[in-house]
Every structure is written in C-alpha cells, then in structure tokens.
Write a structure and sequence with these properties.
Layout (H helix, E strand, L loop, with lengths): L1 H9 L4 H11 L4 H14 L4 H4 L8 H13 L3 H67 L2
Helix pairs in contact: 1-2, 1-6, 2-3, 5-6
C-alpha cells in the first residue's frame, strides 16, 4: 500500500490526492475508509500530525512518514518506499522464524510415524531372517 502511495506521489500528485486515489482503488472496507478519512482531512488542510492520529496500526509508517515529510521536508515518496521495504523485510523475517518453529514442531510427529514403520518393515524382517535358521535347527533337532 505504501508503494502505491509513493508511486502516486512520484507522479506528481499531492499526498491527499495520492491517498485518495489508493483508497478509491481498494475494495470497500476498513482500510479504504481510513485512507479516505485521511485524504479528506489532508485535503481540508489539517496538519499531518493531527490527520494521521486515528489511522489503524498497519498505517503507522504512513503516518510517521507524512509527519516527517511535513515537518522536516523529507522526500515522502522515498521515505514511503523505504518503509515499505522495511515492512517486507520484517514480514520475511517473521515468516522465516515461523518456518523454523514449524520444522521443530514436525520432528516429533515425523519420528512417531516413521520409527514404527522402519521397525516393522526393516528391523523385524531382518531379525526374522537371521533367527529363521536358528528356529529351524532347534525344531528339526527336537523331533526324534
């Protein structure tokens, strides 16, 4: 979402129109409604620090970037692209951690499923074939 707003900013639109364009492209829902409220506030001249206070948590980077750009004059498109890159990296790290946790959780079920199969299909037939000769000698020798 941040990338879309940054692209609209780079095309020359002001922040309010960029946010409004992205909100219009989204399907109706809480995110689109929050962005539309932000765009309306910015269009009315409300400072970014005030307009971004009621944004949902997933738009924190947008709010902080807008305030930074308004107070320090930073390039908002560049800041938004950087925030989007950081968010992607954070999601990738989170996914890697979850995958590692899943691997640990799968060890016990895999062991419980494969170990009995290995014993039944590998160990028991080998032991039976080794002991088969011993059993036949004792049973053959026991009959007078």
């Amino acid at each position: 979402m941040l990338e879309l707003i940054a692209g609209a900013l780079e095309s020359g639109l002001p922040l309010s129109r960029s946010v409004s364009a992205v909100a219009g492209a989204l399907t109706a829902g809480p995110d689109a409604h929050a962005l539309e409220r932000l765009a309306t506030s910015l269009e009315a001249g409300v400072p970014a620090a005030v307009a971004t206070r009621e944004l949902p948590a997933e738009f924190t980077a947008l709010g902080e970037s807008a305030v930074l750009a308004e107070t320090a004059g930073a390039d908002l498109a560049h800041v938004l692209r950087s925030a989007a890159r950081d968010a992607r990296r954070g999601r990738a790290r989170h996914a890697e951690v979850r995958a590692a946790q899943l691997a640990v959780r799968l060890v016990l079920p895999t062991g419980l499923a494969l170990l009995p199969a290995f014993v039944v299909l590998g160990i028991i037939p080998t032991v039976m074939s080794l002991l088969g000769g011993t059993f036949s000698l004792t049973t053959a020798g026991a009959v007078p």
